[in-house]
Design a protein that fits this description.
Bound molecules: adenosine monophosphate
Number of helices: 11
Distance between the termini: 27 Å
Shape: globular
Strand content: 15-25%
Length: about 325
C-alpha cells in the first residue's frame, strides 16, 4: 500500500527555503540519479531555493558530474527553514551520513519505492513500491507538477530509471514509466543513447569475473548462488564493490532465486539476493542489516555458517511455493 502521493513531496519542497538531499549507503544509479535529478529540478523550477547534495558517489558513473556539497562548509544559516530529503532509502542504517540527516533539519521528507516502516520520524513521506525506481517517482513529480525538465535533470533521473528497472525489464515497469520517459524528453536535448552507451561499456576484469562465475555457480533446488570470496576477488583484480554483478546469475534454467555472496573487508559476507517472483525481503531481514524490495534484497551474513543458513532458508521458501 502506498503511503501518500507525489503531492506531499511538492508541498514539502515548496514550504522550505533550504533543501538538503541525501542518498543511501553503497550508492547506486537510482539513489544518485534521484538525488541529482531532484536538485536540478528544484533549481530550475524554484530558482530562489538553496539546494545541497550530501554524500559521495564512490567513483561510480563517472560519465556524469557528481558535485557534492561538503556539509561542514555550508554556513549554519542554511539550516533555518530547512528540509532534509532522503531518496530511495528509509532507515537510519541505510542512509549515508544519517547522523547529519537525522539531527539538523527543520523537517524531513522521504521519497522511496521500498515498502519499509522506518526508525526515523519523517514529517513528509511518499512511499510507493509500485514504482520501478525512486528516480521514476522524482520524474513523475516533475510530470504531474508540470515542472520544466532540463537535459541534465532528464539524464540523472533516466540513469536511475534505467538501472533500477534493469533497462525496463522488471515487473513494475508500466505505462506510467513510459509516460514519465516521454515527459523527460520534452523541451530539451535529452537522448537515452547519451546515457545508454556509457552504461553499456563493460570493464574487462568484470567480464572475466562474470565468465568465471557463470562456469562455477552452484545450483541447488532452484536456488543459484556464487561466492565471491576474497581469493576470487583478488584473482580477478576486483574488490567487494566491483565483484558485484548478481544479475549475471539471473533466470538460469528453472531457477527461482539467485544470490551473489561477496566477502567484505570487515569479515562479513554481503548477500545480494534476487528472485523472479517469490518474495525474499522477509528472509533477508533476518540477516541484519538486511531487507529491501520483495524480489530484490540484500542481507548480511556474519560467517559461512550464516551463508549456508540463508541458502537453506531460500530453498525452503522455494519449496513452499512449489
Ligand atoms: P543490493 O543487492 O545491495 O542492490 O540491494 C537490493 C535492494 O535491497 C536495494 O533496493 C537495497 O535498498 C536493499 N538492501 C540491500 N541491502 C540492504 C540491507 N542491508 N538492509 C536493508 N535493505 C537492503
Amino acid at each position: 500500500m502506498a503511503k501518500n502521493t507525489w503531492e506531499v513531496a511538492v508541498k514539502a519542497i515548496e514550504a522550505h527555503e533550504n533543501i538538503f538531499i541525501f542518498h543511501h549507503i553503497r550508492p547506486d544509479g537510482d539513489c544518485l540519479g534521484s538525488q541529482f535529478g531532484l536538485r536540478e529540478l528544484i533549481k530550475t523550477n524554484y530558482p530562489e531555493k538553496n539546494v545541497f547534495v550530501i554524500g559521495d558517489n564512490g567513483g561510480i558513473f563517472p560519465f556524469l558530474k557528481w558535485d557534492f556539497d561538503n556539509f561542514d562548509s555550508i554556513p549554519k544559516q542554511y539550516l533555518e527553514n530547512s528540509l532534509g530529503v532522503i531518496v530511495d532509502a528509509n532507515n537510519s542504517n541505510r542512509i549515508q551520513f544519517s547522523n547529519i540527516f537525522v539531527n539538523n533539519f527543520t523537517h524531513k521528507l522521504r521519497i522511496d519505492h521500498h515498502p519499509v516502516d522506518t526508525d526515523i520520524k519523517y514529517d513528509y513521506v511518499w512511499e510507493d513500491a509500485t514504482y520501478a525506481a525512486a528516480a521514476e517517482q522524482v520524474a513523475y513529480i516533475a510530470m504531474m507538477a508540470n515542472w520544466k525538465v532540463t537535459t541534465k535533470a532528464a539524464e540523472y533521473t533516466y540513469l536511475g530509471i534505467n538501472t533500477d528497472s534493469g533497462r525496463f525489464q522488471y515487473e513494475y515497469v508500466q505505462q506510467r514509466t513510459f509516460d514519465v520517459m516521454s515527459y523527460l524528453h520534452a523541451g530539451n536535448s535529452f537522448r537515452v543513447w547519451d546515457i545508454n552507451f556509457p552504461l553499456s561499456i563493460r570493464d574487462e576484469q568484470k567480464v572475466r569475473f562474470n565468465a568465471y562465475m557463470l562456469l562455477n555457480y552452484v545450483s541447488d533446488n532452484k536456488v543459484v548462488w556464487f561466492y565471491a570470496s576474497k581469493k576470487v576477488q583478488k584473482k580477478f583484480k576486483l574488490n567487494e564493490n566491483s565483484a558485484n554483478d548478481v544479475n549475471a546469475l539471473a533466470n538460469i534454467g528453472d531457477s527461482k532465486i539467485w544470490v551473489l555472496f561477496i566477502d567484505q573487508p570487515d569479515g562479513t559476507i554481503r548477500a545480494r539476493v534476487r528472485s523472479n517472483g517469490i518474495w525474499i525481503n522477509h528472509i533477508c531481514e533476518k540477516y541484519a542489516p538486511g531487507g529491501g524490495h520483495e524480489v530484490a534484497s540484500g542481507a548480511t551474513c556474519k560467517n559461512k555458517k550464516q551463508m549456508k543458513q540463508l541458502i537453506e532458508d531460500l530453498k525452503a521458501e522455494v519449496q513452499k511455493h512449489a
